[in-house]
Design brief:
54% helix, 6-PGluconate_DH-like_C_sf, alpha/beta, eight-stranded mixed beta sheet, Pgluconate_DH_NAD-bd_C, Rossmann fold, N-(1-d-carboxylethyl)-l-norvaline Dehydrogenase, domain 2, single chain, NAD(P)-bd_dom_sf, 13% strand
Length: 281
């Protein structure tokens, strides 16, 4: 018998995972009440089924929480009381870009309300419609092997032999590395523009670091529309650093992404500088 999966929000990643599942005959529940038209459209294209309330959403075997990181703990607090009365009590799989401490706090909340928890993280981009493959879902904790059944329905599941928190740590370290490099590159390009060396930096990077230039050329412009979402994720990476001095690296990256997000919504002064840097080829 095929499992039923709940994915509360039909964001870009959630809807893409749902599409992989529904293409193989899996029923995927979501919540559409109060959602944007874009969210509703993604849910429709992914073949998701609208649940009228939390109780109906929890009539599933798995609940994959795929949300902006700032909303992960709040959603868990909201849904946890409904787990007590849920007939199926789905396995709660937190797939969000959160720190291990945040994941442990969510696990405690879910388990205290009678639920079961798996720590998970997603690495990769949402699968395009009709494409084969997709992002990897890494899972940790005692119940992580239970998630492997979804591998039979299109998802790529990687189980870590590690406790709750390890999958979140992997996402933080991987995402912190990639987003940290984007922040570093963006900050230095902007500094070069302010001090008159942007053309020379562009030429030298292409001549001596072509692979780095190509990576930044792909990643920096792709960041513009996502920068508002990256703020909370980089804040979680900063939390991972604790009170070590290097936490300031990610505090600075978060502040930069917050500024670029405001700029992207406004005059796009710095966005235009960054975009122009990569047209100098």
């Amino acid at each position: 018998m095929k499992p039923i999966v709940a994915i509360p929000s039909a964001g870009e990643m959630g809807a893409a995972l749902a599409a992989q599942l529904t293409a193989r005959g899996v029923k995927v529940l979501t919540m559409l009440e109060g959602r944007s038209e874009a969210n509703r459209r993604r849910a429709e294209l992914a073949g998701m089924t609208s649940a009228k309330d939390d109780d109906q959403l929890l009539d599933a075997d798995f609940l994959l929480s795929v949300l902006p990181p700032a909303h992960a703990a709040g959603f868990a607090r909201r849904i946890a009381p409904a787990l007590i009365r849920a007939p199926r009590r789905p396995l709660y799989v937190d797939c969000n870009a959160i720190s291990p401490d945040t994941a442990l706090g969510i696990a405690k909340n879910i388990e205290e309300n009678g639920g079961s928890f798996v720590d998970a993280s997603i690495i990769g981009f949402p699968a395009k419609p009709g494409a084969t493959g997709g992002p990897k879902i890494f899972a940790s904790g005692p119940l992580a092997p239970s998630l492997q059944v979804l591998g039979e329905y299109g998802l790529e599941i990687r189980v870590l032999d590690a406790p709750v928190g390890a999958a979140s740590s992997l996402k933080m370290c991987y995402g912190g590395l990639t987003k940290g490099l984007v922040a570093l590159g963006s900050a230095l390009i902007l500094a070069a523009q302010r001090t008159g060396s942007m053309d020379a930096l562009n030429s030298e990077l292409q001549a001596t670091q072509p692979h780095l230039f190509a990576w930044l050329q792909r990643m920096v412009p792709d960041m513009f529309r996502k920068s508002h979402r990256w703020v909370a994720e980089v804040d979680e990476v900063e939390s991972l650093m604790g009170d070590r001095p290097e936490h300031e690296i990610f505090a600075g990256a978060s502040a930069l992404f917050e500024r670029l997000a405001a700029d992207e919504r406004g005059d796009q002064t710095e966005i235009d500088v960054l975009a122009a840097f990569f047209t100098r080829v």
